[in-house]
Amino acid sequence: MKIIVVHGGRHGATRSISLSPLGRTLLSVCLIGIPALIGGVTGYYIGTYDPAAVINERAAQTWRERLAEQRLSLEEAKKLADEQIQGLTVKVAEMQARLVRLDALGERLVAESDFTEGEFDFSRPPAVGGPHVSADAEIQHNSLDFVQVIDELSERIDNRWMQLNTLQDMLAEEDHARESFVSGRPVKWGWLSSEYGRRTDPFTGKIAWHNGVDFAGKDGSEIIAVAAGVVTWSGERFGYGQMVEINHGDGFITRYAHNKQNIVKVGDIVKKGEVLALMGTTGRSTGPHVHFEVYKHGRAVDPASYIRRTYR
User: Fold this and answer.
1) What's the mean per-residue pLDDT of the chain?
2) By three-state DSSP, how is residue 173 classified?
3) Stated pTM of the model
4) pLDDT (mean) for 211-236
5) Residue 23, CA atoms < 13 Å, CB-side half-sphere
6) Is residue 17's pLDDT more than 80?
7) Residue closest to 187 by CA, chosen among 277, 73, 298
8) Structural domain that includes position 116
9) Is the pLDDT of residue 244 over 80?
10) Reduced to 3 states, what is the DSSP secondary structure of residue 26?
């Protein structure tokens, strides 16, 4: 086999090369075998290479990482939700307890007051009303957190509690006015033995003025206050024997005289109906009784009108 090599020079010179049979064989192997080998290797690589497998592996790794992050976030969110639920449970329990107390207080205040029947009914929700206005758009733009709603409700309950306490204070003042209202008899048992005004003096037999009324009764029986007030005298007084004097405010003073024993002392605060002394016959007296006087702005008045009157 002969190979001719042509040079690209100006003169176009050529050169011939003769190959032996072994050379021809080697050349054939190189020219045919090497491309075939390259083609086989390339075909094998192409046949075994899977781009989708490489992409899927990377995606799976990314998903695994994201799932781990989401799992951690979910655990944190669940923990936070549990804490909020516990807090809400405590708040709801406190609110329910407050509502029970408010209902009990309201019912007691209504029972003790002179409100019109049905004006305050704590067994029913409060009456409300007003024109309908859609709030859907506002709710979409301003979603309220549930915890915030409960806090606001709790604040409203606190305000209601304060209002009821104020009402209770007002009723307490009314109770004080009722307690200090001079009315009733100074004894639980006894009978009217002498009235207010002109009478025959039991010691001299002459006409004299009687500044109070007398209630006769059993020796040692109880003498009670006809109104709440402060004890301003408790002791011996000329003509009265053992006497108790009470200042009820608003210019009213009452006196309880001829007592066997005074139970209260000066400075004591007494309630309406409280026992002040025991009936006796000390001082200028003919027998066991209580001499009862009522003073209004420093002047003695007929106790009969106060014994019969009632608080309105």
Assistant:
1) 77
2) helix
3) 0.52
4) 95
5) 7
6) no
7) 277
8) 72-121+142-179
9) yes
10) helix
